[in-house]
Amino acid sequence: MTPPATTPVSLANLPTPLERLDRTSDLLGIDLWVKRDDLTGAALSGNKVRKLEYLCGEARGLGADTLITCGAVTSNHCRATAVAAARLGLASHLVLRGEEPAVPDGNLLLDRLVGAATTFITHEAWADRDAIMAGIAEQVRAEGRRPYVIPEGGSNAVGALGYRHAAEELAEQAAERGLDLGQVWHAVGSGGTTAGLALGFAGTGIQVRGVAVCDDAAYFDAVITRIVEPFGTDASWRVVEGYQGIGYAQATDEELAFHAAVARREGLILDPVYSGKAFRALCLEAQAGRVPTDRAIVFVHTGGIYGVFSFAAALASLPR
Ligand SMILES: Cc1ncc(COP(=O)(O)O)c(C=O)c1O
Questions:
Q1: Is 75 tagged catalytic?
Q2: Domain extents in the chain
Q3: Mean pLDDT of residues grouped by 10 in the chain (320 residues)?
Q4: Are 147 and 134 a contacting pair, CB within 8 Å?
Q5: Ligand 1 in contact with 272 (CB < 6 A)?
């Protein structure tokens, strides 16, 4: 297998800022920074946009006119794909796991606004998502159009190029500030971000720490190994587990109260599905003395702001 050589299209506002979290650093006794990948854009925001620069680059190179992908009804990846498609003058078709709500909100509302076609499937049918997307691609071809299928989360070797580049961007910013970068933390949902960072930091001694928001370390290690395999590089990472909580896209009041406390202390909005779980893991691991105190630690904020609104009722009922 050979690593992909894809010319990216420009979709994200790069480089994203690297900011120090002064009060949280003091609180935890570590030198904590945040890489603001939640600021890659507005409708086009979050980690998926970096992957989509390469995936859409490949789609364009192949002459595709329709992007097909899949995710949860509330998927950030699907929203980013739909917006990217519209930005590039392409059509999009999303396979969404879950029930169609009577009134769309959050990411789904944006999917609708940019004109994405949608197919809703059950949790049971999710196991067949690749076959379902292949079926839609066949239909698109039969209509005389040219489909390009993007796997769940944009997590394949081409998508990983986005985070290999992000690692280079971050290393440059750290060098400009004279930081001795020790660890880079982030959320893991489908493995592509971890894979790209691990490729980008291979051989540097900078440790990649991905926090599983669902499934477990063994599952993600296998997924990430598959993604990095074509590169033939000695990439390394560690998937941190134990912070998945009560389930994917679910959050306890204790977790939500933690996210609200961060919002008040730093003006940093974490989403309860991904970045909130990962940032909480980093803070609790630091409190337990399992994060280095003598080197800079970077948390990659991978976005997900529109997911906050799905938790409106629970967040509004937290004590003020
Ligand atoms: C906001 C956000 N953060 C993190 C992730 C996880 O990234 P990855 O799918 O590359 O593991 C996702 C997507 O799943 C996401 O939407």
A1: yes
A2: 18-46+156-316, 47-154
A3: 86 98 98 98 97 98 98 97 98 98 96 98 98 98 98 98 98 98 98 98 98 97 98 95 96 97 98 98 98 98 96 92
A4: no
A5: no
